[in-house]
Automatic annotation (TrEMBL):
Origin: domain of life: Bacteria
Main location per the UniProt record: membrane
GO CC terms: plasma membrane
Keyword match 4Fe-4S: no
Record's keyword terms, sorted: Cell membrane, Membrane, Transmembrane, Transmembrane helix, Transport
InterPro entries: EmrB-like (IPR004638), MFS (IPR011701), MFS_dom (IPR020846), MFS_trans_sf (IPR036259)
Membrane topology: Multi-pass membrane protein
Record-given protein name: Putative drug resistance transporter
Organism listed in the record: Gordonia sihwensis NBRC 108236
Segments passing through the bilayer: 17-40, 60-79, 86-105, 111-132, 144-167, 173-195, 207-226, 238-257, 278-296, 308-328, 340-358, 364-393, 414-436, 477-498
Length: 518
């Protein structure tokens, strides 16, 4: 192991760190892309497996619930078996799940195999963050998070492009089979590149905590995800699991502060930087991932674009993020994340607010520019927040901090998607009633028509009241973006308290920062 004191030239990322980063990024790409790629394939699953939109949606919900169930075990697993073993085991499980998904014969088997895939994918990001943070050291966590942030920010953008392209030129099976070559390369790469050791064979798992936190997160997210299908939070199928899940999570919090070896050490919240980072990340994920749901829908439903074209129209967002993310990562290490996050949130708010004026013929140049501005803000926001949460942690705290931030991000993004979906659905309800009363499709609401790919621009589908239906739908998207803009603006409040100077762990003066572990 080599090391050097903080504040020297070693603050730059070296070759050893980039080698480790390569394998972590490959795993992250698979895990994150798989969420958005499968979202594109929903209509295909409906026709191939003769199921409803609700049935097909379980291919996404099952994966999400598996992620929620397994993420809390990341810290313990890393300590018990070592990060290299856990990361490689997760890759293998994800690969097996991917192959089985491609072999699914009905929607039930697909959902079951997606759950298996989720158990592997759920550990890739938190374990990957642990590996990267330990390899680079706290002094360079901003730069290393910028590298890891590329798949996290580009996944939602590249997923629709890749998914649409694969389905068009091949078949839905390749949505999953594309993971195989990437996964095999990552597995071989991990075997040779990742540092071994670090395991504590005698470390016991906190079974009471596991029985509270994992089911609690899964039940809570099941209720949240069900709200998108039910189009309200006011039904027992939604609030029932949410209440039970919340009770279990609260019980875990009570338990974690009263046991010596909790599944997740919540005493980390005594660290004010971590506490502010968690609050900021929660609000940011709710706002960003909630708004991200609407962009491709608008392009497909209102403008009649294909899924592939909708993905291409989102590309400026990724380009903007790629420009600012490396700069923000390096500067975060030098002056802290506070200034960059605030500036980034302002850019995101401006970009989201531009969509409030949506119409049926809004200029694509204007919308792409707005998405590019959002991307600039994204690159200055998400990973600096992650950096702030981990830069002041040391030793075993890194494992708990990484696990905590991934659980928070997963939960918050699901909440954001659900909230925006319910708001959009509620705003569409009057339009649905008007169309049905005027002789439109009496068997489907406007939401169901959109979900099932019915061309709402066809007068035969929407009836006499639907002559201006596209204009009304575009206005509904615009009104929903008012809420999204407000959520982004709300994130400015906790972001104001993020550090605006170089972040240093409490014991930096006493311990050298590791450069690479071999």
């Amino acid at each position: 192991m080599t090391s050097s004191p903080p504040g020297t030239a070693s603050d730059k990322l070296g070759r050893d760190v980039f080698i480790v980063a390569g394998v972590v990024v490959l795993g992250a790409i698979m895990s994150i892309l798989d969420v958005t790629v499968v979202a594109v394939a929903q209509p295909t699953f409906m026709s191939e497996f003769d199921t409803t939109s609700a049935g097909a949606a379980w291919s996404m919900t099952g994966y999400t619930l598996a992620l929620a169930a397994v993420i809390p075990t990341a810290s313990w697993a890393a300590s018990r078996f070592g990060t290299k073993r856990v990361y490689m085991a997760s890759l293998i499980l994800f690969l097996i799940g991917s192959v089985l998904c491609a072999m699914a014969w009905n929607i039930g088997s697909l959902v079951a195999f997606r759950v298996l895939q989720g158990f592997g994918g759920g550990l890739l990001m938190p374990i990957g963050m642990m590996i990267m943070t330990r390899a680079a050291g706290p002094e360079r966590v901003g730069s290393v998070m910028a590298v890891l942030g590329i798949p996290m920010l580009l996944g939602p953008i590249m997923g629709p492009i890749l998914g649409g392209w694969l389905i068009e030129i091949a078949s839905w099976h390749w949505v999953f089979l594309i993971n195989v070559p990437i996964g095999v390369i990552a597995l071989v790469y991990a075997f040779f590149a990742l540092p071994g050791g670090g395991a504590e064979p005698g470390k016991k798992i906190d079974f009471p905590g596991l029985l509270m936190l994992s089911p609690g997160l899964a039940l809570f997210l099941f209720g949240v995800s069900s709200s998108a299908e039910e189009r309200t939070f006011g039904t027992p199928r939604v609030y029932g699991p949410m209440i039970v899940g919340a009770i279990l999570i609260i019980a875990f919090v009570w338990h974690a502060f009263r046991t010596t070896n909790p599944l997740l050490d919540l005493r980390l919240f005594r660290n004010s930087t971590l506490r502010v980072s968690v609050i900021t990340m929660s609000l940011f994920a709710i706002a960003f991932f909630g708004a991200s749901l609407l962009y491709p829908q608008y392009f497909i439903v209102v403008r009649g674009e294909s899924t592939l074209m909708a993905g291409l129209l989102l590309a400026p967002q990724g380009l903007g993020a790629m420009l600012t993310m490396p700069i923000a990562g390096k500067m975060t290490d030098k002056i802290g994340p506070g200034k960059f996050v605030l500036a980034g949130l302002v850019l995101i708010a401006v970009g989201v607010a531009a969509f409030i004026t949506l119409g049926t013929d809004t200029s694509y140049w204007f919308l792409c520019l707005a998405l590019f501005v959002q991307g600039l803000g994204m690159g200055m926001t998400m990973m600096p927040i992650m950096s702030a949460s981990l830069a002041t942690l040391r030793g075993s705290e890194i494992a708990d901090g990484s696990t905590l931030m991934n659980a928070i991000q997963q939960t918050s993004s699901s909440i954001g998607t659900a909230v925006i979906t319910v708001i959009f659905t509620t705003m569409l309800a009057p339009l649905s009633r008007a169309i049905m009363q005027a002789g439109g499709d009496q068997t489907k609401t406007m939401n169901a028509m959109i979900e099932n790919g019915v061309d709402v621009r066809d007068p035969a589908a929407v009836g006499a009241a639907g002559q201006n239906v596209i204009s009304d739908i575009a206005s509904t998207y615009g009104n929903t973006f008012i809420v999204a803009t407000a959520l982004v603006a709300l994130t400015l409040i906790p972001a104001f308290f993020l550090p605006r100077k170089k972040m240093v762990a409490a014991d930096t003066e006493e311990q050298p920062v590791p450069v690479a572990l071999h």
